[in-house]
Amino acid sequence: MSTRRQMLATGLAFVPGASALIAKAQPGGAGPPRVGLLLAESVSLQAGRVDALRAGLEAAGRVDGTTIRFELRSAEGHYDRLDALAADLVDAKVDVIVAFGIKALTAARAATRSIPIVIPATSSDLVAMGYARTLARPGGNVTGSTTFGPEIMAKRLELIKELQRPLARVGVLVNPANSSFGPARAQMEAAARQMKVTLVHQGVRATSAFPAALAALARDGVQALVVQDDTLFNEASSKAIAALSTQQGWASIGGVGFAEAGGTIGYGRSDADLYRRGAHFVQAILQGRKPGDLPIEQASRFELVLNMNSVRALGLKVPASIAARADRTVG
Length: 331
Prior knowledge:
Elements: H1 3-11, H2 18-24, E1 34-39, H3 47-59, E2 69-74, H4 82-91, E3 96-100, H5 102-111, E4 117-122, E5 142-146, H6 149-163, E6 169-174, H7 181-195, E7 198-203, H8 210-219, E8 224-227, H9 236-248, E9 251-254, H10 256-260, E10 265-268, H11 271-286, E11 297-298, E12 303-307, H12 308-313, H13 320-323, E13 328-330
Parallel strand pairs: 1-2, 1-3, 3-4, 4-5, 5-11, 6-7, 6-8, 8-9, 9-10, 12-13
Antiparallel strand pairs: 10-12
């Protein structure tokens, strides 16, 4: 067994039906179009996104196992396996690769410049990172949607500052493996200076490290938490982060799903909506469109969600400035 195949088998060790996925990945097979799904984190952490993409494709008449076939590869949080998993999808001659997050996109783009790649949701600047010439005409083999990560993170800082007063030190939970956080950090630091707030950045690469990471922030005296957009901080992870934040007595803010999982505020776009929309790009490519001709979509509307259970547990009063802008509440 080759080194890469060994890595592939390891990367799929915890995926249900992993041996079948490896068997199906042999190149040259006939049948329906094949869509490679490349995940940096575990399948369990990304299940909602996979389901949303599947639902969008089914609405377009693409049903897994009949009119389309998924080839799923998950690094299970071991990011050093992504390159081998991406290369295996290329060897399998899939028709399109769907990258679940910027880490997966980086590996997929390194593996191929010819197979179309769709990234349904990213907070990264795909033009600045060299994945597209322009948003309107990407020109290469990458297309998808972007959500203005630096602006979103600065807005989250502003919202948490409005909610929790006084506020002097704010923790920022980030995944250091996410190469796109630099611009967001710069914009947050500029906003923090205007607000007279000190930011304390804390990196974390695995869900098992959440308790230690938040304990370190507590020792640094932070009073609230802002969570980066990253595939590591989604779904089940959001519940753990929100619970730990509440235990520390911190108001917390992340994406829309973060508030639904127990965080105090959610601000951004729904992952489910974005991944369902991602099916549009996959369908267009399977119908013959070139990814370089498919404009990268920009989110035009962001949702603000308040978790009232968290607000009450923390003894906070929601200011009128936030209440008036909230799209909905949970709890």
